[in-house]
Amino acid sequence: MTIPLQEKQQQLYRQLARIGEALASPQRLKLLSLLSQGEKHVDQLAELTGQSKAAASAHLKVLRGSRLADTRKDGRNVYYRLAGENVSRFWLTLRTLGEDLDPEMREILHAHFETPESLSALSMSDVLQQVQSRKSLLLDLRPEDEFAAGHLPHARNLPFPRLEAHLGDIPAKRPVLVYCRGPYCLMAIKGTSLLRDSGVPAHRLRFSVPEWRAADLPLDDSQ
Fold first, then answer.
1. Do 79 and 116 reside in the same domain of the chain?
2. pTM above the 0.90 mark?
3. Spatial distance between the Cα atoms of 34 and 37, rounded to a whole number of angstroms
4. Which positions make up the signal peptide (predicted)?
5. Cβ proximity of 66 and 19 under 8 Å
């Protein structure tokens, strides 16, 4: 018996609803954000999201079931990654949509994440010009594995936990542009504040690797 076309249409909406259901969790959205920086082991993801390994695995299973995430095996280890670049772009679009539609989100961002004196207004092309001409130092505060997976051109990696111990290695008079995992990343906020308190003219960028990649700008994967 031929299935009516209306039923096929309903099936399409059910499949889309699976994606919507997968997104209906703050923890799963945070996992998507982390995976947009590169693949990670479930233990890393559990630690970064403040969950047990079992809870993180359950959320990752939902993301994989909705085709938003995929896995790669290396011996006994299983690594998670986004299912494709289109998922990363979808995450950026969802984030922008939320900020556009939700006044509460805008209020939180304005009050806590967009301090005018420390937030850079430079565009991506401006940043590229600044670092190519050596007018500014570009500092990536993400962990080494994320830096190795891809970073902004000419960036120097100094993971946030080591920043305070290496403040003396950073030129005090040269402007420093700081980034980590995007506009919601606390490491960049704290790192920029730490640098400014030590006398370094530091500013935090609004973007990170996913935004740079979405703009079709080249990344660097050299160490």
1. no
2. yes
3. 6
4. none
5. yes
Range of the domain at 161: 106-214
Task: Give a yes or no: residue 35 inside a domain.
Answer: yes
Per residue in 85-105, pLDDT tens?
A: 999 999 999 999 999 999 999
| Residues 23 and 116 occupy one common structural domain | no
**What CATH number does residue 24 fall under?**
1.10.10.10
| Number of structural domains found in the chain | 2
Task: Look at the alpha carbons of 20, 21, 27, 28 in this order and tell me if their dihedral is positive or negative.
Answer: negative
Cα→Cα distances 155→17, 26, 71, 127, 143, Å? 40, 30, 29, 11, 13
Task: Give the residue from 168, 61, 178 showing the smallest Cα distance to 119.
Answer: 178
